[in-house]
Write a structure and sequence with these properties.
- The chain is of the alpha+beta class and about 80 residues long.
- The protein is about 15% helix and about 30% strand.
Length: about 80
């Protein structure tokens, strides 16, 4: 079992669809605004389960692992 908790510090971006629906991208630790990352840096979208959100442990751990690889992780909330 994991003994540590990830404190994500998400930066939320709201996207509006043509039909008026919304989707939120929770960018992990502001990686969407990091000037040290080149534009070619891969983006990893992490999707939660049916009743979850970006606050779920597995979403935070996946974002942490992607960030440790130098990628831009974002949890998508729909």
């Amino acid at each position: 079992a994991r003994g540590a908790t990830i404190m994500p510090g998400y930066d939320r971006q709201i996207l509006t669809a043509p039909d008026g629906g919304t989707v939120a991208l929770d960018w992990f630790r502001g990686c969407n605004k990091n000037p040290k990352l080149p534009d070619s840096t891969p983006v990893v979208l992490v999707m939660h389960g049916i009743n979850g959100g970006s606050f779920e442990g597995y979403c935070k751990w996946m974002c942490e692992m992607a960030a440790s690889k130098g990628w831009r992780p974002a949890a998508i909330n729909y």
